[in-house]
């Protein structure tokens, strides 16, 4: 069945001319115009001409475009631009998800306009380009796509760590040489691995001392977990990683827009916590692009808690260093997911041997 207005569209990963693996979900936070190029050469030429004539419409902040290429000849001649990505779909894998290609053999090329949360806002048939491009300038700013500005569904909880305890965690990182640069999670076949990527520039230290872990866990259970249950109706029973991090201006500290639970090895994560340990820095705030340009900064010792499925970023630190404690929270259902993943990769390793 076709996707109806108001419904979220399917997410996917695919190659573009410049990226071997483009994650569709990361374009949220602006309007997205998708076009599935027709298989008919004449109709395809008309669509490509319309894109070329209206490139100035796409600025990547307010509106970006994704052109889904479904024939090998076109794929050879295109290149990604800042606000126009060419999604390669030569086997119709993506087109089938969007009901453009179907088992009945009928080709249904179309233009789809998505809102900043990647839900269908409007559809035009190929051939309706004049009406389409006349409508785009009339769209409200992305943060007002629903009318009023909607704040991100996050919890700000102050007074989780006391100042002296915050300083203790900062000292731990600094005594370890300032921490080591860490990577991001990516799926490679059946396994989730860590890769170094320009998406993130951050130094981390894992806390391994059992007594310090216990002190942290005691504070979280007494001061933060009841608030998570009150705000989100979720009972935390598990903590993933006791991690102290540093985003430093001298490193270009940043973590660009991403989600925390989109790989096989991270699907168990339900909520992320971000506890600021200091405030002597500029930049470094949290932003949730699907909910506009507003930024969020908990006070020293306070936490910002949010669902791991939300697109979010830690904005660049432009001065000083931001120190933070960054755990993930989940429950027994999440633990079952994690156990199943670990069992799968163990079986894969045995088969490989």
UniProtKB/TrEMBL annotation:
Domain of life per record: Bacteria
MF GO annotations: dioxygenase activity; iron ion binding; L-ascorbic acid binding; oxidoreductase activity, acting on paired donors, with incorporation or reduction of molecular oxygen
Signal sequence bounds: none
A Pfam family it matches: 2OG-FeII_Oxy_3
Domain Fe2OG dioxygenase: 238-332
Named cofactor requirement(s): L-ascorbate
Stored SUPFAM superfamilies: Thioredoxin-like
InterPro entries in alphabetical order: Oxoglu/Fe-dep_dioxygenase_dom (IPR005123), Pro_4_hyd_alph (IPR006620), Pro_4_hyd_alph_FE2OG_OXY (IPR044862), Thioredoxin-like_sf (IPR036249)
Record key words, sorted: Dioxygenase, Iron, Metal-binding, Oxidoreductase, Vitamin C
Protein name, as recorded: 2OG-Fe(II) oxygenase
Lineage: Bacteria, Pseudomonadati, Pseudomonadota, Alphaproteobacteria, Caulobacterales
